[in-house]
Amino acid sequence: MGELKGMKELFAGRHFDREIIVLCVRWYLRYKLSLRDLVAMMAERGLDIAHTTIMRWVQRYVPEFEKRWNGYARRSGRSWRVDETYLKVRGRWVYLYRAVDRDGNIVDFRLSPKRDVAAAKAFFRKALRTQLRAPVSITLDGYAASHRAVREIPNEDEAWKRTKLRSSKYLNNLIEQDYRGIKSRTRPMLGFKNFDYAAITITGVELLHRIRKGQFALHRLNLKDRAAPAI
């Protein structure tokens, strides 16, 4: 992951104050605003900011904010509900794989250009790296590729040997409802023009979603040897 930069170093050389940058990035990720909405809102405060500048801030700072917050992340439960939804990038569908635990806490997510066995396995590997332990159970809907991925992945990594596969449309209502918060935010963004930009933006939206759910051990912010989150 690399050493985290200090806050002063992270924002060094920027024309606008750190508070303005963080505010624009947070509002863009949190509320149903387009980049041009934010430009208009900043203009009312006497600030002339181009929408492309805010877009660059999102790209530059979301990965840094995520690194900082992940240092305080709580591990999710071990009963995962997994599903995928779709978004458009340059007029083509891409797929957002997501998992929540039985309490609705976000386990992990991954944006993928494809929806197949390899994509599902890539998501499960990412989730394992995030959680540092495999789930006791994975609940899926009826999509065959994801079922195959769960059946095959124990042959590639023994960490998954004890994971049980369940299929239940009813139990997966939890994650389908959780998608609403993500889609309600991405809809006003008026479509993504670039896959990498979409992936970073979704990372920021998911981060704010996790913060609202209380998935971070904020009592640890008094540790003197760790950089506090900015967003």
UniProtKB/TrEMBL annotation:
This is Transposase-like protein. PANTHER family: BLL1675 PROTEIN. Residues 78-215 form the DDE domain. The keyword rRNA-binding does not apply. SUPFAM superfamilies: Ribonuclease H-like. It comes from Tunturiibacter empetritectus. InterPro entries: DDE_dom, IS_Transposase, RNaseH-like_sf, Transpos_IS6. Keywords: DNA recombination, DNA-binding, Transposition. One of its GO terms (molecular function) is DNA binding. GO terms for biological process: DNA recombination; transposition. It comes from the Bacteria.
